Every structure is written in structure tokens, then in C-alpha cells.
Amino acid sequence: MEKIPDEGAALIVYYHGAIPIDYYYFLAKVIIQKGRIVHSVADYFLFKVPGFKLLLEVFSVIHGPQEECVKALKSGHLLGISPGGVREALLSDETYPLLWGKRKGFAQVAIDSKVPIIPMFTQNVREGFRSLGGLSFFRWSYEKFRVPMAPVYGGFPVKFRTYLGNPIPYDHNISAAELAEKTQQAVQALIDRHQIIPGNVLRALLERFHSRHKDK
Description:
This protein has helices at residues 21-34, 52-58, 66-74, 85-91, 105-113, 125-128, 136-145, 176-194, 201-206; strands at 10-14, 38-41, 61-62, 78-81, 117-123, 129-131, 152-154, 161-164. By secondary structure, it is an alpha/beta fold. The protein has one domain. Helix 2 links the parallel strand 2 (38-41) and strand 3. Helix 3 runs parallel beside helix 5 and helix 5 (105-113) packs across helix 8. The radius of gyration is 17 Å and the shape is globular.
């Protein structure tokens, strides 16, 4: 948690689990330990769910226009975003592939705001909840309609450990594409260092009772 600044803006970029329960815990811990609220970017469809819009606004969630993200950061807030978003949540699996495609908007936001990027990954997040989005029908339906209809199962009490990488400082000489690639490499490095591939629910459960885990 020492990599989260006590004041000033930063963009936190994280891997998206099937349900990002790790990110919710992270938000709570930042409030408790730092006394700060992390603003977050969520998929636009959540704002269309009846009753959700007000709830999301209360928790400082925005649907992600670059202008709004820059505004939040220039106001000195922390901002969390997952470039993989819903697609990564549904279609990634226990091998933990990053599904960012060619997305670089988040990097442009960091450049325009002149803030550092802090990479983040949670060990075993795919073992807590699993998605059936990789099955051909659910994959097709999401790619066709962009509606997340794939079932999610789990709630397994596995051991989560959230890791923050070294901040990537603002550099006016770097392009958005280069910064996006650099950030993806940083998140991938956290996965490579801390996650046993493929993930295994039983092993992740047993880690609650002994300290064996991949650290190096």
C-alpha cells in the first residue's frame, strides 16, 4: 500500500477478474489506510441497470469518457481502470491472459493528466470466481451484442493477495501506444511473478492454511 500516494493523482491499472471482488477490497483498504477514495471507471452498460446509476455515482464511478477521467485526475484524485474491462472479465480464464487488444485510451489519459500509472494484480482472483464466457455460445453472444450474459460461478474462499507494481512515471516523450504497451508488460510481470499458471481452485483454497505461494 506504500505505492499508493498519500496525496496527488495516480492512475491504477488492474487485471479484471470474472467478478472484481479484489478491487472492491482494495478500494476499502485505501479508504481505511490512506483516507482516500479511489474513483473508478466502469462499463457503460452498468449505468443502464435500473437503480445502479445513483449507486455508482455515490461510489465515484464514471463510465469512462477520456475527458471525465482527465478531469478526475487533474482534480488530484486516484482513478482505477481495467483496460480489459468486461471482455477480460468474461473471456479470460485460469491461464490469466490479458485481453486489452489495442486499447490505449487509458494511457492517453495518464499522459494528458501528467500522472503516474500504478499496475495492479491479485493472485488467485480467477479462482475466487470463474466465468463460462469462454464457451463458444457465450463468447459469440458477447462479441455480437456486447452484452455480458455468460454465467459466473464461485464465491470460493480462496486466498487473495493483491500486488502493486512500481509506478510508471509520467514521461512527455512517450506515446500513448508505447505507454499502453509498457503498462501491459508491467501487469503481465506481476502475473508472471505471483500467479501459478494455470490457476487451481483447490490449491488456492489450501493457501489459506499454509504460506506456499508463488512470489518469485
